Amino acid sequence: MELFDLPVELFQCVVRYLVRDVGPLYVADYRLVCRLFAIEIQNEILAKQPLVAYSQEERRLPAREPIHVATARDDARFTKLFAQHGGTIIGHEVLRDQKNPLPLVKHLKVLTETVLRLKDSESRKLRRTYTFDISNAISGVYQKQLRWRISLRTSSEIADPSIEDDLPAALAATGNVKLLLELASTRANCLTKSGSSLPDPLSAAAASGQVETVKMLADHILQETKANPSTAIRTTTMDLGDALKFAIRKGQMQTGVLISDRLYKARGREMLSHRLTMECLQYLDTGLLRRVLIDNQRVLLKLPQPRDYGTFNQKLTLRVYEMDQLFTKGSRSMLRAFLRDGLIDANHFDSLSDLDQACYDATTPLALAVHHHRYDLARVLIQHGAHIDGVPRTGNPVTALWHAARDGYIGCSDAPHPGVRFLLKHGADPDIHGDWRSPLRAAEKRWPDVYFILQQAKDFGVDVALHPDTWRRYELVVKIPMQVDLTDSIPSLSELIDD
């Protein structure tokens, strides 16, 4: 019987066991099997997995990788998942009946009930809505801090979160402006102060998409600034900048635009240009990145804010730090946005500022992506027309495979030299031109293992060169050089398969 012929209940059990064995952060790789698999896996991850499964103690690190590499990959997966779906995951955990909930979950339950009590309501629908709003607010905090809080098993490990401290942010996240103003009339600075586990009210409202609350709080900050100009940079620019980062992480376009408009004229806006760009590049494209780049450029030149960003057609230029961040920590969504808006050509760097253009004249976007081991970005570039054997317009006319062969990065997986393998798999020529520009010549006297893979690709084809037995036979040659002849170690692909 085929897997998809199973009854629905049995199929769901299979998916549940898969998630348990692989781990919720890694099972998403199986979503591409089919649409049914994707639906069941997403439902299992977002609604059914206990929150403790995402804690640091429950990491499922691959044994074949060094611990620091595996940990970095695991943290990156956690950051990406909780930026997009953290509010849903935490919200379902808070709504779930449990005898001994995690301290964070217990705190959020009490906080939600406190808001409902102030609202004088016992509606189940409203309780569910408020739970997800508050969960969205807390899922927007710095991801390492969030994961640390999830990992806490008892309150004795840290001082208990305070309902009194978190209540203003909870009211802002749920859009209760009237109750928030009543609370502010009796408690000084509660509209700008961060809570014990939740962020400040403006950031909480931005993360939860509460447009009217964001308007009120942002205008309040601006009024406080006029009353006390000496604290303008601290209370206005930094507070608005932090709130904008929450909107960026949670993909809240409306609240992000509102904050961005007020931040443009704030004193010291240029100080946040780098931080805001870095924040945008790591998450899904919602249109805020283009707005941030336009503001960065115009603030630097002391130009007025555009009236209509949609019809703004002035050419944008990128700086070196923005390009570096894109190819090291940037998301595929943001690279697609750069390609769509013409900020990057798939084959050349054309939109850098004049001062920075020289830094990338001698390379191509594909070569840079492979150099940083961002093969996901390299695939996006190829999908958008990057030539696998393309060369830069200036500098040495060499391909991305030439750079990868010369670097000799062996990696830490069962398939060494991932950059070389990736480019060969996508059709790169191992001996293009046949002279010093050839990747074979680049590796000949530097990296014997790279030279071997490239030579096999040239003589027998890519299928043979990348076959697992090819590397095993090469290792045998290296360990016992007198017993094995390198020239006849890989006669044909059919013999490799037959073995």
TrEMBL record:
Superkingdom of the organism of origin: Eukaryota
SMART domains per UniProt: ANK (SM00248)
Record's keyword terms, sorted: ANK repeat, Repeat
Coiled-coil residues: none
ANK repeats: 361-393
Stored InterPro entries: Ankyrin_rpt (IPR002110), Ankyrin_rpt-contain_sf (IPR036770), Multifunctional_regulatory (IPR050745)
Keyword Repeat tagged: yes
Name the UniProt record assigns to this protein: Ankyrin
Lineage of the organism: Eukaryota, Fungi, Dikarya, Ascomycota, Pezizomycotina
